[in-house]
Amino acid sequence: MADFDAIYEEEEINEQNNEDNQIIFVPDPIIVRGAGNMTVFGLSNRFESDFPNGLVSRVAPEEFKATVMRVNGVLKKTLPVNVKWLFCGCFCCCCTLGISLWPVICLSKRTQHSLNKLMEWENSRLYHKLGLHWRLAKQRCDSSSMMEYVLLIEFIPKIPIYRPD
After folding, report:
1. Which residues cross the membrane (predicted)?
2. Which of 37, 69, 79, 138 has the fewest beta carbons under 10 Å from its own?
3. DSSP 52-79
């Protein structure tokens, strides 16, 4: 009888190993690039609101557009102030040995923080329930070696839950 129990234990271990080795397919993230005519420290003044094909049957186009419009609203409110401080900082840069650019850097960080907070709210409100995760990410531009901020929409993998019968 003792040998019989050992055989069952090995089979249970093999079943658990087979479930651990499952490969979960996750599509590539969707990138929403900046579409504005002005960029301050890699952050464009607005993002594209065109509905990407990769989100069909995952989220409603109206929800996607509303989220991008909220992001654009934050940018519309904060970037003009950043640009004014950038011009002032560049104008006074020689006299202040670059210290006059610190307000622009701080305002840019505050804008990024506001966008990250908005993304967290959107994710918790809607997108995590749909298996999506939005975030602001830094990425290399296609045409040059400069960096830009993009909206990255990642797919959250669905992990199968093992339930013994």
Report:
1. 85-105
2. 37
3. PGGGTTTS-HHHHHHHHHHHHHHHHHHH
